[in-house]
DNA sequence: CGGAGAGTTGACGACTGTCAAATCGTGTGG
DNA sequence: CCACACGATTTGACAGTCGTCAACTCTCCG
């Protein structure tokens, strides 16, 4: 009731046909008839940077897609240790059909707009319009692959490699969103605080800071301000990340 | 061509209706008509303990379900560091519809029987019989949850907590398979070598061995032989694992 | 100007990895 | 039936990475 209602930049109703995530979201495969069905059911919600969208364990009666902004999924242990387990970018899906309560904290790290459906109607839609279920399966399989890549990072990479990997991942996503290539000189803005990076990487905030400084000192990256990063040679960064040069994917 | 053909215990054709994984596998929701369709397409393959089923990057022209035995999915870095990213038990699904090549090494850690489908026919089945796609989505979402739980383990737990978690996970699965409860005194056999455990947990084999010894010394577990484990008080084990007492789930 | 939040840096120590050797268990050849 | 070999596991000694605690800088804002 508090801030949730007083959200930023109220999103006016957008026609699915001109939606920015139309071709990647859960609705990507829908035909015109199916879109009409979604159109009459969907609604938009906005959240401010820093705002928690749902708490782990809380009842969650909607599902939805990130339209703009970034959100994170995080798990917390009893003693407060935290591990990020999902990084949600535009077109990513939030929530699980068939589940009552949220399994993770979902937090908006930037201002965020979501295209939502109440859970029950969405479950009905999934039964009626196979294209939604098919696309959701595809997206879930992609997320599973990303999670497994992430497990390799968490289990086996050094702090330096973790940082290099994260920068590479964000740069690749950013490039693919802007339809640019990620080769040679690449520039990115980190959408995460040092703390959020540490939660992503299974490190402490201090180690993150130190390794960023080290990569900077070694010329792998250059930094302007706190968040703006210039990668003079993307291949070098990949090498530092310990990945074989070919693709890397992500949520 | 070599050992692959000379597999153990040739599985004779089993009717889906009396298949041991009938109620949990990708076919769980199928009705009689649909089963008939699967029945005429499926075939069985057997593998010996230690045998690699597919190598990462290789062409993979089938998908399938584990009928009996255990397999692992593993990623390898260029310098040889390895991280397990999936532990496949009976009823778990192997392979990804719509993908040409395997993304991970798949290895049988015990003698294994799989119920297979060539990929193309399976993709057709998925389009025709919605229950298969629906069930696969459900299973994939479960796997994603398990992967995220695993990420918390890899990123934030201590070596001791990792070992306790692994034992708890295996004990829970084992209990659920045998329809027993996992409370009070529990007994399990570890189906993994110390090395496989270390690949699961993101540790070295030596650390695994040391922490198992420590848990034994502290009375959290008792050991007979190398693999047979007695847990006098399951709640105590859970406490050592750092989990909140309620559920824990897994692939 | 003071304060709060984000980020950086330093000193130190603990946990876990590395290297090496010893032990246990099982299967094979003599 | 026993000795030996090999793989799996355990244990020890030591080193390095990363976490902890703490001080300090920078920027933004009231």
Automatic annotation (TrEMBL), chains A, B:
Pfam families: cNMP_binding, HTH_Crp_2. Keywords: DNA-binding, Transcription, Transcription regulation. The keyword DNA-binding applies. GO terms for cellular component: cytosol. Residues 157-235 form the HTH crp-type domain. PANTHER family: CRP FAMILY TRANSCRIPTIONAL REGULATORY PROTEIN, FUMARATE AND NITRATE REDUCTION REGULATORY PROTEIN. This is Transcriptional regulator. It comes from Pararhodobacter marinus.
């Amino acid at each position: 009731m508090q801030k949730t209602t007083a959200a930023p930049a109220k999103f006016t109703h957008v026609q699915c046909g001109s939606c920015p995530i139309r071709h990647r979201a859960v609705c990507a495969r829908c035909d015109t008839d199916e879109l009409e069905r979604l159109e009459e059911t969907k609604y938009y919600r906005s959240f401010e940077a820093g705002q928690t969208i749902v708490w782990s364990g809380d009842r969650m009666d909607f599902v939805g897609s990130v339209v703009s902004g970034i959100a994170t999924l995080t798990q917390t242990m009893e003693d407060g240790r935290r591990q990020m387990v999902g990084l949600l970018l535009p077109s990513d899906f939030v929530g699980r059909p068939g589940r009552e309560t949220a399994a993770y904290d979902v937090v908006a790290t930037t201002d965020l707009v979501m295209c939502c459906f109440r859970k029950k109607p969405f479950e009905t839609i999934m039964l009626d319009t196979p294209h939604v279920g098919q696309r959701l399966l595809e997206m879930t399989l992609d997320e599973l692959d990303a999670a497994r890549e992430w497990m390799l990072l968490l289990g086996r990479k050094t702090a330096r490699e973790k940082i290099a990997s994260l920068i590479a991942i964000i740069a690749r996503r950013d490039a693919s969103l802007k339809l640019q290539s990620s080769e040679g000189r690449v520039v990115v803005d980190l959408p995460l605080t040092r703390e959020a990076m540490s939660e992503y990487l299974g490190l402490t905030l201090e180690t993150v800071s130190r390794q960023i400084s080290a990569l900077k000192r070694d010329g792998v990256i250059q930094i302007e301000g706190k968040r703006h990063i210039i990668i003079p040679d993307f291949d070098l960064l990949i090498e530092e990340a310990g990945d074989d040069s070919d693709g890397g994917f992500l949520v």
